[in-house]
Design goal:
The protein has about 210 residues and is mainly alpha-helical. It contains eight helices and three strands; from the N terminus they run H-H-H-H-H-E-E-E-H-H-H. The chain folds into two domains: about 60 residues, Helix Hairpins; about 110 residues, minor pseudopilin epsh fold. Bound molecules: zinc ion.
Length: about 210
């Protein structure tokens, strides 16, 4: 099997009480694993089996006849990115250059959080909210379903927030805004964002020790 389920960067109960161990066990162990398993099935004996995940996402984006491969590949990438975007020691205003950049561009850290939450709340149905950097400018974006900043050429991805119902329904039910605001305040992994910001190559690995 060319693709494997990357290990979670923390224990399944490490994000409690913001995200429960039960949510993580389903989200990681069933949903994320399901995308990996389906991707392996779909790419078996195709040229995609030898490609890196990012390459599959870029090459299949927008191709109607490859949507099944795209959706599963992108969701594997998105979830790898999401787990690393959260940390039990996360949250708070990032110090240093990144903090100054956020204040300069969004007005204040609070306005940044507000805009990020609004992007997630504003996704109609399933999707993702992202912090990206394009030509030196930080941007908050949102994508539908499995789409991501790679497929939509939005720039360098710094942070991901999953706003599919499976990410929050067990803990927050229909209150997506509560989920987003709590995660934004308590779990954002600024070390990961800073590392992504400093990356110069397109092929970075998100499977890092944090
Ligand atoms: Zn998810």
């Amino acid at each position: 099997m060319p693709f494997t389920l990357a290990a979670l960067p923390y224990a399944q109960d490490a994000l409690e009480p913001v995200i429960s161990a039960k949510t993580l066990s389903y989200h990681y162990g069933k949903h994320h694993k399901g995308y990996v398993d389906k991707l392996n099935e779909r790419v078996a004996e195709t040229r995609y089996a030898a490609m890196k995940l990012e390459e599959i996402v870029v090459k299949t984006a927008g191709s109607a006849d490859k949507s099944d491969i795209f959706n599963n590949a992108a969701q594997v990438w998105n979830h790898d990115f999401y787990w690393n975007s959260l940390s039990p020691k996360g949250g708070g205003e990032p110090p240093g250059d990144l903090g100054r950049k956020i204040e300069k561009q969004f007005g204040s850290y609070e306005e940044f959080l507000d805009e990020f939450a609004k992007a997630g709340i504003g996704c109609f149905g399933s999707g993702w909210a992202w912090l990206v950097e394009s030509r030196g400018v930080l941007k908050i974006t949102k994508t539908a379903n499995a789409e991501n900043p790679l497929s939509e050429k939005q720039g360098k991805t710094l942070l991901a927030l999953d706003v599919w119902e499976h990410a929050y329904y067990l803990d927050y039910q229909n209150k997506r805004d509560d989920y987003l605001k709590t995660v934004l305040n308590k779990l954002l992994n600024w070390d990961f964002a800073r590392m992504n910001l400093s990356e110069t190559t397109k092929r970075r690995s998100v499977h890092v020790e944090i």
